Amino acid sequence: MDMGAALRDLGVTDDVLTPGEKEQLDRDGFLALEGILTAEEVSAINERLAELTAAEGDRAGLEVHQEKGTDRLADLVNKDGKFEVCFSHPRVLAAMQHVLGEFRLSSLNSRAALPGEGHQALHADFGQPVEPGAYEVCNSIWLLDDFTPENGATRVVPGSHRRGTMPTDELPDPTAPHPDQLQLTGRAGDVIIFNSHLWHGGTRNQTTAPRRAMHSYFAHRNLPQQLNQQTYLRPETYNRLTPAQHFILDVTSPA
C-alpha cells in the first residue's frame, strides 16, 4: 500500500476539491467544507463524547494534552468507530494531500471550550517557521456545535501561514486581538480545514453551554505523531479498519 492507493481506496480523486477550494486553501490557509456530518451523526458523536468524558474523569485527554477551561479527550481512534470518518472522509483527505503531499494522522482529539473559558494566544502548531509551500502539519476542526462569535469560534489571521514567521516574532501580545483576524464560524456538521502553520487560536466562550469540536490533526509522514498510533492501537480497532485506513494511521499490526 502507498499513499496513492490508500487515497484511491478511500474515494479521493482529483476532483474531490474544486480548483477554487484549493486556491483558497493555498491563499488564505483555511477552507470550510459544509455539511460533512449529518445532524444524526453530530448527535451520536456528541453523546459518545459525553459518555467518554464522564467515564475518564480527571484523566480525560491525558494521552495528549489537558487544558484548563476545556473538556478534552484524546486517542479517539480507539474509542469508537463513529470517529473513523475523521481520518477517512475523502474531502478532508484530499485537502490534507493538497497541503502536505505524503501524510499520516498525527492525533484525533476533542476539545470543548467551557462557558467563560477557551481563549488562546495566536499560535501555530509547529515549533518553527517554514518556507511557504514547505508545510509540515495541517488540521481539521469538526464542528459539533454551531461556531459563532459568541461561543468561542477559532480566530485565524488569513495568509499568515505564508509569512515564514511565528506570532511571537511579530506580536507584542499574541493573546490580544489581531487587526486582520477573523473567526471561523459555521454550522454543526461542517469541517474547517486549516493549514496548521496559520496563526490561530480559540476565543472565549461567552455563552452558557460548552462549544464542542473534534480535531483530526495530520502531519507529514516524516514527522513524529502527536499520539503514536501504533503504540496505542487496540486489536479490535485494527481489525475493524481497512488496509487504507491502516496506512493513514501508519500502523502495521495491533499494539
UniProtKB/TrEMBL annotation:
Gene3D superfamilies: q2cbj1_9rhob like domain
Protein name: Phytanoyl-CoA dioxygenase family protein
Span list, region Disordered: 155-178
Domain of life where this protein originates: Bacteria
Gene Ontology molecular function terms on file: 2-oxoglutarate-dependent dioxygenase activity; iron ion binding
Entry annotated with the keyword Oxidoreductase: yes
Organism: Kribbella sp. HUAS MG21
Keyword annotations from UniProtKB, A to Z: Dioxygenase, Oxidoreductase
InterPro entries, per database record: Phytyl_CoA_dOase-like
Protein's UniProt keywords contain Signal: no
